[in-house]
Amino acid sequence: MNRYDIEATFYDNFYDSTDDIPLYLEYASKSGGTVLECACGTGRLLLPLARAGHEVTGLDASYKMLEVLKTKLRREEPAVRKRVHLVKGDMRDFKLPKTFAMGYIAFASFLHNLTVQDEELSVKCMFEHLQPDGLFVVDVFNPDLSRPQHLARLDKVKQHGKETILLFNAQEMNFKNQTINATNLYDFVSPSGSIKRKVINFQLRYIFKDELVRLLERAGFRIETVYGGLNHEPFNENSTRIVCVARK
Questions:
Q1: List of domains in the chain
Q2: pLDDT tens digit string along 152-193?
């Protein structure tokens, strides 16, 4: 089962950051047209863009995540609902009947591409779905090779209805293959103290800044800028993020 099909009903409890919303609102406004988000999930970014007046198509591989987003949409104003279009699909292989003024893959979702071929297919798909001069923004973390090769921790504790959920995360770095083997372990603690556990294993492939730039250029994009953070910080070796802005 898709990792996010398992996590969908409690995903928002753990992944609720808002620090990247201003960046995507800024570039959606600059694009002046329709927007495509690959890996839109439960709409953490998509909904603020739609509320701001942008027409947004959200694509995601998880049926359950899209169902959560549809439930949220039913609580929005009719005008917001009208601006949102949802598609179940894979960022590596999708075909939509329109092109867009802007596309983006946020919150390190691009790292679900586990091979260079997967990365190339995703970038190619995005390129084909952008209008001439269309914007593409991709945001991933900047790999820190000084971190421990093996890491395990209690990551977050959140409330979900009457239950308390503890998220434990373990990671193993494979420097040769540029992959991270990760496990999310969720303990659901009831008011009586009983515990239910969900264990989710998944993999990511990290990418370096120069590697990402070359990947986009090979696909036909021209690089506009590369930031080291979400507030337009210049990129350097100590940056925690790689925010690449490119044009078709």
A1: 3-143+206-247 (3.40.50.150), 150-205 (2.20.25.110)
A2: 999 999 999 999 999 999 999 999 999 999 999 999 999 999
